[in-house]
Write a structure and sequence with these properties.
Length: about 475
C-alpha cells in the first residue's frame, strides 16, 4: 500500500538526516583539530520498482558519506621546529610503533603534523603515530624509493651524537715588514741544527724568527692543534726564509732524530717589487728551494697516527700517541683581498681564517621545505639525518578513515606513491607550521539548521501517514 511506503520513506528521511547531523557534529567537534578534513552526508534517492495499476510506492532517501580529504587547509605558524605542514598534495607516512617495523605492520597516512620528540628521540604526533622517512646512510646519501615502504624508518633525532670536522683549508692575511733588518747572525741559521721552529729564548735553542704566524686547526677528533709559519729576512731583497712547523713539535713525527723539530716544510718565499707574493719567481727556484712548488696550491699532508708509511720530511705523520686520522690542509696565501704581503709597515697578522671545528653537541633540529631533517651543532656544523617521505594517491578522497586523524589505503584510493617533498606533484614541507581544520563553522551551523528542518519534515510524513491509516481503520465503524 502506498501509505505504508510513505511511512518507510519518512523513516528513511529520519535516518538520512540523522546521518547528516552526525557528520555535522563530527565537523564541529573537530573545528580545532590539526589537519582534520571535513566530511558530509550527501543524499541520493531510492526508487522502488513500480507495477502498472498498483499505485505509486515511495522509495525514500539514502545518506552517503563523502570525505573531503584532498581539500587543503590553511597553514598556520607555530613556535616548534618539529611542527610540520604540507603546502600541496601528499600525506605524512606514519606507523603505530617506532622500532622493528616489517612489511606486516600497518602504515597510516596523515596531514596532522604536530610532531614532538618522545623520550627515545623519535618524532611522534599527538595521536601517537611515528613519522617515517628515508635515513641517511654512512656515506651521507639518501636512497629514496617510490614504492618500498620497508626503506622508510622512524625518524630519530635523539640518537644524534656530537660531531667534529677536521680543518682542510686556511686563509692567511698577514704582512711582513719589507724594511726588516737582516739578523747579523743569519749565517748561523741551519734548518737541521738551528731552526726557527725550536726557538726558545729561555733554553737558548734555535734561531729567533723575525715573525711568526700561528694557525689553529682542528684534527679529526675535534682536538685543537697549531701550525705555524716562521719567517727570517735574508740579505737578498724581497726574499725570506720560511718554515712551516707544528707546535708543540712532539705532536709530529717526521722521521728526524731527537729532539723533534716539528718541521713540515722549509724554503724560500719571494715577493714582487709591489709587495705581493712572487708566485712565478718562487716556482722558478731550483727544486726543493722554495717553500712550496706552487704558492697558489700550498698544501700540507699529514699522515694518520697509525700510518704504515715510514715518517719523513716528505711524509710526516701525526704522533702515534695522538691516535688521529690523516689530514690535508691547503693554505690560501695569495687571496685577492689580502694574502701574504711584504709592505713597508709593521709585520702583522690581519686574519687567519680556517674551516673545521672542535667537538660540538646537538643544539637544534631543523626541517627544510624539501623535508631534509638537519642536526645543528653548537660548533656550527650541520648534518643531515633523514628526509621526510610524502605519499600521494590517485584518489585521496577514497581513503579509509582511521583513528588519530589518519587514513588507510582502500581499493578506491589506489596504491600509494612515495615521493620526496616538492617532487612528482608532492607538496613542500612547511616547518614550524600546522595545517588547520578545513571546517567552516558558518557553513556547518547553516547545515545544522537545514538538517533539523528536514528531520522535522520527515517526522511530519510519519504523522500524516499515521493519521491516514487511522482514518482507514475507522472506516468499518
Amino acid at each position: 500500500m502506498s501509505i505504508n511506503s510513505a511511512l518507510l520513506a519518512g523513516v528513511s528521511g529520519l535516518t538520512a538526516n540523522s546521518a547528516a547531523l552526525a557528520a555535522i557534529s563530527q565537523n564541529i567537534a573537530n573545528v580545532n583539530t590539526i589537519g582534520y578534513k571535513r566530511t558530509s552526508a550527501e543524499f541520493s534517492t531510492v526508487v522502488n520498482s513500480q507495477s502498472a495499476g498498483t499505485g505509486y510506492s515511495a522509495g525514500g532517501v539514502l545518506a552517503n558519506q563523502r570525505n573531503f580529504i584532498s581539500q587543503p587547509g590553511q597553514l598556520q605558524r607555530t613556535t616548534s621546529s618539529t611542527d610540520l605542514g604540507i603546502a600541496g598534495q601528499g600525506f605524512f607516512v606514519t606507523a603505530e610503533k617506532a622500532e622493528n617495523l616489517d612489511a606486516g605492520d600497518a602504515r597510516l597516512f596523515t596531514r596532522a603534523g604536530a610532531f614532538r620528540v618522545d623520550n627515545f628521540g623519535y618524532l611522534k604526533n599527538t595521536a601517537g603515530l611515528y613519522l617515517q622517512g628515508w635515513p641517511v646512510d654512512s656515506e651521507g646519501v639518501i636512497a629514496t624509493d617510490p614504492s618500498d615502504l620497508n626503506r622508510l624508518k622512524s625518524i630519530n633525532v635523539g640518537s644524534v651524537g656530537g660531531t667534529a670536522e677536521a680543518t682542510t683549508r686556511a686563509q692567511i692575511n698577514a704582512n711582513l715588514q719589507s724594511s726588516q733588518p737582516v739578523s747579523p747572525d743569519i749565517a748561523t741559521y741551519n734548518v737541521n741544527t738551528n731552526s726557527l721552529s725550536v726557538y726558545d729564548a729561555e733554553a737558548g735553542t734555535g734561531f729567533k724568527p723575525d715573525f711568526r704566524i700561528t694557525v689553529p686547526i682542528s684534527d679529526s677528533k675535534g682536538g685543537q692543534r697549531t701550525l705555524a709559519y716562521s719567517f727570517l729576512k735574508t740579505a737578498n731583497s724581497n726574499e725570506w726564509l720560511a718554515e712551516v712547523h707544528v707546535i708543540p713539535a712532539t705532536d709530529l713525527d717526521n722521521g728526524t732524530t731527537a729532539p723533534p723539530t716539528g718541521i713540515l716544510k722549509s724554503g724560500l718565499v719571494l715577493f714582487t717589487q709591489d709587495g705581493r707574493l712572487d708566485v712565478d719567481g718562487t716556482a722558478a727556484l731550483p727544486p726543493g728551494t722554495g717553500l712550496f712548488d706552487d704558492l697558489e696550491s700550498a698544501s700540507i699532508v699529514l699522515n694518520a697516527s697509525d700510518s704504515a708509511v715510514a715518517p719523513s720530511l716528505t711524509a710526516p705523520k701525526w704522533a702515534t700517541g695522538l691516535g688521529i686520522d690523516d689530514q690535508t690542509v691547503t693554505f690560501d696565501l695569495t687571496a685577492s683581498a689580502g694574502g701574504l704581503t711584504q709592505y713597508d709597515s709593521d709585520s702583522i697578522v690581519q686574519a687567519v681564517v680556517t674551516n673545521g671545528t672542535a667537538f660540538g653537541n646537538l643544539s637544534n633540529i631543523e626541517i627544510d621545505d624539501e623535508g631534509f631533517v638537519t642536526a645543528i651543532f653548537d660548533n656550527g656544523v650541520t648534518r643531515r639525518i633523514a628526509q621526510v617521505a610524502l605519499a600521494t594517491f590517485t584518489s585521496a578522497d577514497s581513503l579509509t578513515t582511521a583513528n588519530g586523524n589518519a587514513y588507510r589505503v582502500s581499493q578506491g584510493s589506489g596504491t600509494y606513491n612515495l615521493k620526496a617533498p616538492g617532487t612528482g606533484g608532492a607538496g613542500l614541507i612547511g616547518a614550524s607550521q600546522l595545517e588547520a581544520s578545513t571546517v567552516d563553522l558558518s557553513a556547518e551551523f547553516t547545515g545544522l539548521i537545514t538538517t533539523q528542518r528536514a528531520y522535522s519534515a520527515s517526522s511530519k510524513i510519519i504523522t500524516t501517514a499515521d493519521e491516514m491509516l487511522a482514518e482507514l481503520i475507522s472506516i468499518k465503524r
